[in-house]
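User: quick one
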Amino acid sequence: MDFFAYIPQLLSSGITIGAIYALVALGFVTISRASQIINFAQGEFVMLGGVIAFFLLKVVGLPYFIAALVAILIVILIGFVMHFLVVYPLRKASIVILLMATLGTSIFLSSTSGLIFGTLPKTLPPFSGERPLYLFGVSVLPQSIWVLVSTFILLIFLYLLSHRTLLGKAMEASSTDPLGVDLLGISRNLMVFLAFGVSAGVGAIAGILITPIFFTSYSSGALLGLKGFIAAVLGGWGKNSGAILGGFVLGIVESLSLAFIPSGYKDAIAFGILLLILYFRPKGILGSPFIDSRRW
Amino acid sequence: MKMRNKSEFRKRDLFYLAPLWLLSLIAPDPYLYHKKEFKKKDLFYFGAICLAPLIWSDPHFHHLMVLAGIYAILALGLSLFMGYAGQISLGHAAFFGIGAYTTAILTTRYSVPIFLAFWASAFSAAMIAYFIGRPILKLKGYFLALATLGFGEIFLVILRESTDLTGGVIGIFGIPWFSVLGFSFDTYLKQYYLIWGVLIGLFVFSKNLVRSKVGRSLLAIAASEDAASSVGINVPRIKLEIFVLSAAFAGLAGSLFACVMSIANPEAFSLGFTVLIVMMVILGGMGNLYGPIAGAILLTWLTDVLSRYQEYSLPIYGVILILLLIFFPEGIGTRLNARVIYLIGYWAKKKKREQGKF
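Assistant: Done. Structure below.
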């Protein structure tokens, strides 16, 4: 039994799923950088991206690229609508209320998607061929490389957005210094509105990337969203780099754990990591700008 | 107008003093729960609870009220933790599940008497809450919510995977009815009185608790932890105590749930259930002990009504949750009371104005 032969293979699949977690975590971070709100419906954006792209491709019959693009636009629109109808009326409410409202939205989105698009798990064809590539003796799906490249491009895009544009700076400022932002004449509500759009778009892209590898069904969003949040906390809450690192670490650890424990316990690993990180280092691996080290 | 002396005895006082005296016998702490603290409102609620199943003798209504009572016990405990101490927990479904599974395993595998299993489930939930609470409760806000949620998810995974102990996804069947000293609670009506009796006992206990020193410290912690610790309140200890207590409530509720449904399976304790109980606490109004009970009855009724619409029920449920949160963020009762008080005040002023005019 060559036990260690599995490890590179598990590592490669861990990196793929880690990239997806990183994208979900980036969605959380984008919103939290603008408003300190945590959107528990983030996982549903991922699910909707995959499911709507499938619907447009298979039922409507659009070309792949256009179907993906339209799906992303629709999910961004859903993100805007969610902000307008749910988060904006509750902008002054307490944490518990916002938490429950986003959870309620999550229930609504997942069950509505099950109603409209059917409850069967869906899968999209891979972007470029099914034949696995062999790199260093490890078989890698071409889709995994697509996932990694897209994650990298999105990371650069989000970095440029938040560090090189006035809009990104205004978004970040509206979270760190609300009063200053008000004095400068920046609309905080508009910033949060835009942040919801960006995070919904990132989520939808993650959904389209993941659907060819893993099946996406109407109920898979909640768990993906939670794991993305865990990744964001693990890497360092509120940092793009932390979200990416946390996503990859979580994906790799979860995947490697398959070599040691029964696969049914895989989901417990992520939450176990969460409890450990919250206990020993709440600000995450890279540290967090929002959480001071002493007490929060 | 003739003023009545307050200590003057009236014959009609006998009508509520007699049941009041009876109730004071079963109240856990008669020293704290003075007779004069009883309000007529309490007596009215008590009478309504006793008479309701006799007036509507519909088994479906009885079953619904049994479920509502169980959820109310759970929501009452959660209300102590969320409403009074100002913390957030999304993991109480897990404690509920621990209670249910403890009862299920003890009664079906080891044929322990159910009355013992009832207390054992509260104890096991409290023990687990103690060990979980020590590390978790130093967190705040969203992160506390997430940590408790993580605990709940781990519990669900363990339930599904450890097939030998918990029966996996299928769960455990054939849990006996609740029985004390050979008296079996085998109809919905008997279960109704059992569960609402337990609920009233726990309610009186909680009411005493929030008026005690611990309860005052809880309010102080909810207002500001720094200020609370500066006046000598041991904040981590009080938080841990109330977490353990609310978990014990959840364990009792879970045990009763297992007896009533005679089945325990993992689907009943998922995230959706957590959302439901937290909604009960929010809808009733935070920091109010009547609230969670009212919220439990309301939401149990709502889910029952919605279950008729089958696949449309979850989307409608989601929309109703969001609407309730947007329009009644401080609980339905609070907003309605404020409205009623405003109307009464307006009416009284109007009357006064008119009298002044004429």
